[in-house]
Amino acid sequence: MSVTEREEYERLRKAASVHHRRLRCTATSVLLVLTFLLAPLAVVAAWVDSQVADTDRYVQTVAPLATEPSVQNTMTDRLTKRVVDNVDVAAFTDAVARTLRKEGAPPRVVQGADAPTVPLKSALDSAVHSVVRRVVTSDQFAEVWDDANRRAHAAVVKVLTGEGDSAVQAGDDSIDLNIGTVVDNVKQRLVDAGFEQASKIPDVDKKITLLQTDKLNEAQGAMRLLNILGVWLPVLVLALAALAVWSGPAHRVALMTTAIGVGVMMIVLLVGLAVTRQVYLDSVAATALPQDTAADIYDTFLRFLKNSTVTVLVIAVITALAAYLYGPGRGARWVRRAAAGGTGATGRAMARHGMRTGDPGRWLDTHRKWTTGIAIAGGALALVLWNYPTPGSVALVLGIVVLVLVLLGILAAASGTARPGRTSHQPPGKGA
Questions:
Q1: Nearest to 210 by CA among 332, 146, 127, 300
Q2: I need a labelling partner for 220 at 20 to 30 A (CA). Which of 163, 276, 286, 367 fits?
Q3: pLDDT 10s per residue in the chain (432 long)?
């Protein structure tokens, strides 16, 4: 091959290499964008799927509503009003007047029969409110609430898809809470307390509107789609993130970029949930639902979604920080030297006191990259297999991984053999 042909070959090879690098960068960019856009949707989809498919999770979601003071107060006031409004006190006093008239009572006495109407209604209101309050705030009510929701887990399906029959129901333009069991319980308590006529109280409206919206049908359609994607969308996002890191020209930089991007999207999701909360509170104004009750309902229903979002954010921050610490930055090098110095000094102190690890320690020292990778992969797998991880569980797994890495470093340093390029008098990280 002539000099000219070799030069042409090198030129073509370099051009092909540049073109290949550009393609990899383009592919990485596309994968990163898809990962960032789908990450919030994956978190929401996984939350929806957990609420629909996991009965225990759903019961955990709605259980606090039974003991939330603002919700108890609202239910007590509304149930009292509905029961009292269905008792015709005026008809009772009219019946008394007719009886007195028939018995020939003086006209003044007959006319005075209507006077107790207001006091009777006030006394009835007070008595009913007291009974309802005891029912709603009792431990038995909380147990009945949990049991009813467990047996009627289709409630969340009703909210999201408009199908099924349960305590929480979706109407054409609203989401309602069916409190029929509570109403029946109150009527029975009134009878037991001596108000025998309470058994004749006609059926009252047994629904409390939680959310009034003319966009419920569209929301239900979106939620049905999220329910279908609840299992596979998170898997798809993880796969896209892994491909983005693998295809990136610099894997560490791609990993750090992916983690930062996902973290930013989790912050966007948290902001979106805060905005949605205000929209919800504004939407219930027309239903006369107290703001504190509406806020407690919203916070209770979505607390696990917020928790999942914060968990992913914490994982993203930890991943980005780990990717940085493995880089060439000055701060990263200082942290690595400090860690190596601490584990090395501890290991050598053990060796001097006769606690040498020998060949196993030398094997650990030789295969540091593999053992470190296995420890980190084990922590990641633990989080993947963890049923509904929380920021606390992430911190626990991180602490265990760090502890394992520290122990491995100490055992490697306790082998009694100095690492290549370092004399026994050189401090860790100061070798040639």
A1: 300
A2: 286
A3: 566 766 666 666 666 665 666 777 788 889 999 999 999 999 988 887 787 667 778 788 878 887 888 878 877 777 777 766 666 555 555 555 555 455 555 555 445 545 455 555 566 667 767 777 877 787 777 777 777 666 655 554 555 555 544 455 555 555 555 556 566 666 677 667 666 655 656 555 555 555 555 555 665 666 667 667 777 889 899 999 999 998 888 889 999 999 999 999 999 999 999 999 888 888 776 566 777 888 888 888 899 999 999 999 999 999 999 999 988 889 999 998 999 899 989 988 988 888 888 888 889 989 888 999 899 999 999 998 888 899 999 999 999 999 999 999 999 988 876 554 444 434 444 433
Q: What is the DSSP letter of 418?
A: P
Helices vs strands, H then E, count in the chain: 17, 3
Backbone φ, ψ for residue 412 (5° rounding): -65, -40
Distances (CA, A) of 118 to 125, 191, 362: 10, 22, 92
In angstroms, rounded to a whole number, what is the distance separating the alpha carbons of residues 174 and 244? 42
- CA-to-CA separations, 316 to 43, 344, 346, in angstroms, rounded: 13, 30, 31
**Which among 353, 350, 343 is positioned nearest to 403, based on CA atoms?**
343
Cα–Cα distance measured from residue 258 to residue 256, given in angstroms and rounded to the nearest whole number: 5
- What is the rounded distance in angstroms from the CA atom of residue 278 to the CA atom of residue 273? 9
Query: Under 8 Å CB-to-CB from 223, ≥6 apart: which residues?
Result: 48, 160, 161
- Compute the Cα dihedral for 413, 419, 423, 428 and give only its sign: negative
User: In this structure, what is the dihedral angle of CA atoms 30, 32, 33, 36, given to the nearest 10 degrees?
Assistant: 160
Helices (H), 54-137: 55-62, 69-85, 89-102, 107-111, 117-137
Q: Is 288 left (phi over 0), alpha (psi -120 to 50) or beta?
A: left
Distances (CA, A) of 337 to 348, 409, 431: 16, 12, 11
CB-count exposure of residue 117 (10 Å: 0-12, 13-18, 19+): middle
CA dihedral 37, 38, 40, 43 (to 10 degrees): -170
Q: Extract the tokens encoding 279.
A: 């929209």
Say whether 21 sits in a helix, a strand or coil.
helix
**Which residues on neighbouring strands pair with residue 178, listed in sequence order?**
207
Cα 38–322–244 angle (5° rounding)? 35
